[in-house]
UniProtKB/TrEMBL annotation:
UniProt-listed Pfam families: HAD_2 (PF13419)
Presence of keyword Metal-binding: no
InterPro entries: HAD-like_hydrolase_sf, HAD-like_sf, HAD-SF_hydro_IA, HAD_2, HAD_sf, PGP-like_dom2
A cellular-component GO term for this protein: cytosol
GO biological process: DNA repair
UniProt protein name: HAD family hydrolase
Species the sequence originates in: Rhizobium leguminosarum bv. viciae
SUPFAM superfamilies: HAD-like (SSF56784)
Domain of life: Bacteria
UniProt keyword annotation of Hydrolase present: yes
GO molecular function terms listed in the Swiss-Prot or TrEMBL record: phosphoglycolate phosphatase activity
Keywords, alphabetical: Hydrolase
Length: 217
């Protein structure tokens, strides 16, 4: 048996545009300089309060970051409706999930900096909720790269970290996997560069979702 744990934003779905627009409106509301798209992409994967603090050059979360986090959360669904933005799947993701979901030697889960509500919306929108049997979100665990998301998913499914594969697009995913003792697969279609993923512990790089399948054989 193996446990496959997928990141969400930048790995399964292309949500950078939605995240950036919500972040832009949040920073504007608080009179902060508008972030660049590259700044937003660099923090995708972190828990939201930590991400907002990092974008303002702060190593620790302060009260303003907490206030901005609350405002961001209140805006997210509104922006999603304004843009009619459904966080589309990256090409090939549906086919890859369909290919592995019927296997009896593989369990599928999610480890994400999204809220549990946000992950649930993505899963239901794309019909993945029936395939993902375990999940840890920013509501459940410390932010990546802390290993808790992985170790708690392992505990819930009675799997060993050595038999677990984390698939993600961010350096935080690679660092989290290594800290938990799991294998790390970086994906080249997300928001970090291949060089960054390798430098942060990726055991392999997938350039298309169908290349992930070979790691579950």
């Amino acid at each position: 048996m193996k446990l496959a744990l997928f990141d969400c934003d930048g790995t399964l779905v292309d949500s950078a545009g939605l995240i950036h627009e919500t972040m832009r409106r949040t920073f504007d509301k608080f009179g902060r300089p508008e972030p660049r798209f590259e700044d937003t992409k660099a923090i995708i994967g972190l828990s939201l309060d930590i991400a907002i603090a990092r974008m303002q050059g702060r190593p620790h979360v302060e009260q303003q970051d907490i206030d901005m986090t609350a405002h961001y959360k209140s805006l997210f669904s509104i922006v999603r409706q304004d843009l009619d933005y459904k966080e589309p799947l990256f090409p090939g993701i549906r086919e890859m999930i369909d290919a592995i979901s019927g296997r009896d030697d593989l369990l599928i889960g999610a480890v994400t900096g999204k809220s549990r509500r946000g992950l649930k919306l993505v899963m239901e929108t794309h019909g993945f909720d029936k395939h993902f049997i375990v999940a840890r979100t920013a509501d459940d665990c410390p932010s990546k790269p802390h290993p808790a998301m992985v170790t708690e998913c392992c505990d819930e499914t009675s799997m060993n970290a050595a038999d677990t594969i984390v698939i993600g697009d961010a350096v935080y995913d690679m660092q989290m996997a290594k800290a938990a003792g799991a294998k790390a697969i970086g994906v080249a279609w997300g928001y970090a560069s291949v060089d960054e993923l390798i430098a942060n512990g990726a055991d392999a790089i997938a350039y298309h979702p169908n290349e992930i399948l070979r790691h579950f054989s």
